[in-house]
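Appendix B, Record 12. Input sequence as logged:
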Amino acid sequence: PAVVRLRRRLSDGLRAALIARRDPDLLADWAHAPWGEDDLDVWRALTAVRPTATTRSRLAALESELAGPDAR
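Logged structural output:
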């Protein structure tokens, strides 16, 4: 349990630092990794600094998925 907690704390800290730094290459690396493919906040940050058709499309898909059926 302690290792899981430490791993989560490290992951959360790294993620927050990536979002705050706004480096498009680092954000893209995170977003395209298995643990980041559904990370809405990272995709929002990536789209803000690299607003390509691909990033906008993925962000829209995630927002639609997470909005639920009532919001569509």
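The chain has a mean pLDDT of 94.
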